[in-house]
Amino acid sequence: MLSVDNLTLHYGQSQILHGIGITAEPGKVTAVMGTNGVGKTSLLKAIAGRHPYARGTITLDGQVLDHLNAFQAARAGIAYVPQGREIFPLMTVQENLESGFACLPHAERGVPAHIFELFPILKDFLHRRGGDLSGGQQQQLAIARALITRPRVLLLDEPTEGIQPNIIQQIGRVIAQLREQGDMAVILVEQYFDFTWGLADRFFAVTRGTVSLSGEAGQISREALLDKVSI
Ligand SMILES: Nc1ncnc2c1ncn2[C@@H]1O[C@H](COP(=O)(O)OP(=O)(O)OP(=O)(O)O)[C@@H](O)[C@H]1O
């Protein structure tokens, strides 16, 4: 289980996260929701070692991840799919996938076959440039690249943003399949409410850098959550 406790984060003088805490269990999709600018991406960046946090604790399966950098976090089993995908446009699909190898020992540097079962289109397009793929295909590539490290925690930042509806459904099915594998905690930052409501097992609403509401699917009220995460 990933656990974030009492985390604070700043950009210069500006404090963005104010003692935020979430937990995410393997085999579950944990949604982090909130309006623009409340600090969702900053939280993911702190977990992924992409931005330092000032105070607080991040633990994975009871082990403290003590202010890791991005490489150390990836080695510890945390994979991050950033908002905007960050695909290398001039590199092929294969090269983009292989760029995910960096944190793996040489003996483990292979693309697991199940990646192409989840995303068959990537196999067909292995030699195309990343920049020639559609937004939805790039999102699939970004998730596939993250899965190459066989993570214990998968952080997804707005995976449906700018993507056509049929591909959104496909991404939803992939996330559900990853949950069914049972060994990975998926943390989903997402503003598309109905997509997230239909998919997640647990919800955290973030307001001004802290959790204002949380609860399990089936227990939390849709209206109460919608109220917290709407403008
Ligand atoms: N590198 C940065 N330097 C300064 N301020 C930043 C930086 N990155 C983000 N911020 C500010 O921190 C606040 C939280 O940003 P963050 O991206 O974490 O929010 P968010 O909830 O993910 O929003 P969105 O849904 O718009 O992505 C915002 O006010 C944003 O302008």
CATH homologous superfamily?
A: P-loop containing nucleotide triphosphate hydrolases
Helix/sheet category = alpha/beta
What proportion of the residues is helical, as a percent range? 25-40%
Please give the alpha-carbon distance between the first and last residues. Answer: 31 Å
What is the mean predicted local confidence, pLDDT? 94
CATH class: Alpha Beta
CATH topology: Rossmann fold
Largest sheet: 6 strands, mixed
Order of helix and strand elements from N to C terminus: EEEHEEHEHHHHEHEHEEH
Please give the order of strands in the largest beta sheet: 6-7-8-3-9-10
The distinct bound ligands, ions and cofactors come out as: adenosine-5'-triphosphate
Number of contiguous helices: 9
Number of beta-strand segments: 10
CATH architecture: 3-Layer(aba) Sandwich
Question: Rounded to an integer, what's the Rg over CA atoms?
Answer: 17 Å
Structural domain count: 1
Family: Belongs to the ABC transporter superfamily.
Keywords: Amino-acid transport, ATP-binding, Nucleotide-binding, Transport
Domain ABC transporter: 2-231
Protein name: Amino acid/amide ABC transporter ATP-binding protein 2, HAAT family (TC 3.A.1.4.-)
